[in-house]
């Protein structure tokens, strides 16, 4: 399944955030990996969302040399044993674990007293600082508290990525000042994502990553279908068009940024 032929022979893309252990993708993994290769997506970071399923994520990274893994608990997961910093640090010692997360705050899906969510976030930042690995941060309708906790806990000491970014330019600026990259997903290809497109035009390329968040958020023209890492090419194409540069340049810079951030990759 070759999507586009815009990339040169030497340019390669990296999907900086996906969930290949989720059933929609795991059941067809051989084809997913083949599609990545055909579309010059050289590597992908498989992101942990809870510790119960973490072994599946780690197994992918142990099995396939072009897949990496993170360890963490997503803010949406309630009623489980809260991860402690030392536990995360211990799990992160594995050489295929290159990041802590995804972690952060989400005030869209969950309501009420969310102090447990904020404490979980703090534990992840402390773990990242202890093990020296960057953070993968999820924030939705919680930008102010997210940035505040990042500052209070010294997240700038390890940096990381604001994944699937949908916040304002001002939030992006504050995150970048704390040593974070901004990652764009298929949302940037949606027609109604006007403000996000403007942000993608403004952010310095040296602070940009691209991702799919697959199996979610498939880019145009696959919107509404199951997403996969090969589709990150459409995200790169959209950014190239918005900025008036070649998709090769987007690929080269974002791939360089990925390996610059995730130094254990």
Notes on the structure:
There is one protein chain. With 265 residues, the chain is an alpha/beta fold. The protein has a single domain, classed as Alpha-Beta Barrel (TIM Barrel). The chain contains ten helices and eight strands. The protein has an eight-stranded parallel sheet with strand order 1-2-3-4-5-6-7-8. Strand 6, helix 7 and strand 7 form a beta-alpha-beta unit. Helix 4 crosses helix 5 and helix 5 (115-131) packs across helix 6 (143-152).
Question: Could you give the topology of this structure?
Answer:
Layout: E1 13-18, H1 23-26, H2 29-38, E2 41-46, H3 54-63, E3 67-71, H4 85-91, E4 97-106, H5 115-131, E5 135-140, H6 143-152, E6 160-162, H7 169-177, E7 180-184, H8 194-202, E8 208-210, H9 232-243, H10 247-261
Parallel strand pairs: 1-2, 2-3, 3-4, 4-5, 5-6, 6-7, 7-8
Defining traits:
265 residues; TIM Barrel; 8 strands; alpha/beta
The neighbouring-strand order within the major sheet is 1-2-3-4-5-6-7-8
Distance between the termini: 27 Å
The pLDDT mean sits at: 95
The biggest sheet amounts to: 8 strands, parallel
Radius of gyration over C-alpha positions, nearest whole angstrom: 17 Å
The assigned CATH architecture is: Alpha-Beta Barrel
CATH topology: TIM Barrel
Name the poorly predicted regions: none
**Structural class, judged by helices and strands?**
alpha/beta
Per CATH, the superfamily is Metal-dependent hydrolases
């Amino acid at each position: 399944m070759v999507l586009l032929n815009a990339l040169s022979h030497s340019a390669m893309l990296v999907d900086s955030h996906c969930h290949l252990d989720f059933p929609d993708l795991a059941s067809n993994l051989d084809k997913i990996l083949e599609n990545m290769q055909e579309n010059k997506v050289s590597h992908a970071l498989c992101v942990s969302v809870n510790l119960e399923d973490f072994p599946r994520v780690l197994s992918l990274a142990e099995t396939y040399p072009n897949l990496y893994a993170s360890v963490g608990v997503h803010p949406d997961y309630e009623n489980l044993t809260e991860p402690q910093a030392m536990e995360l640090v211990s799990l992160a010692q594995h050489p295929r674990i290159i990041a802590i997360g995804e972690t952060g705050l989400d005030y869209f899906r969950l309501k009420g007293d969310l102090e447990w969510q904020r404490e979980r976030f703090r534990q992840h930042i402390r773990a990242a600082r202890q093990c020296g690995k960057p953070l993968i941060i999820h924030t939705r309708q919680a930008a102010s508290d997210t940035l505040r906790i990042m500052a209070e806990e010294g997240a700038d000491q390890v940096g990381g990525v604001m994944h699937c970014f949908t916040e304002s330019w001002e939030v992006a600026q504050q995150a970048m000042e704390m040593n974070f990259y901004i990652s764009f997903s298929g949302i940037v290809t949606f027609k109604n994502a006007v403000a996000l497109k403007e942000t993608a035009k403004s952010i310095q390329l040296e602070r940009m990553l691209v991702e799919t968040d697959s199996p979610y958020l498939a880019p145009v023209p696959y919107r509404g279908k199951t997403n996969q890492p090969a589709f990150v090419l459409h995200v790169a194409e959209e950014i190239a068009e918005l900025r008036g540069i070649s998709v090769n340049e987007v690929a080269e810079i974002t791939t360089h940024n990925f390996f610059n951030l995730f130094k254990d990759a």
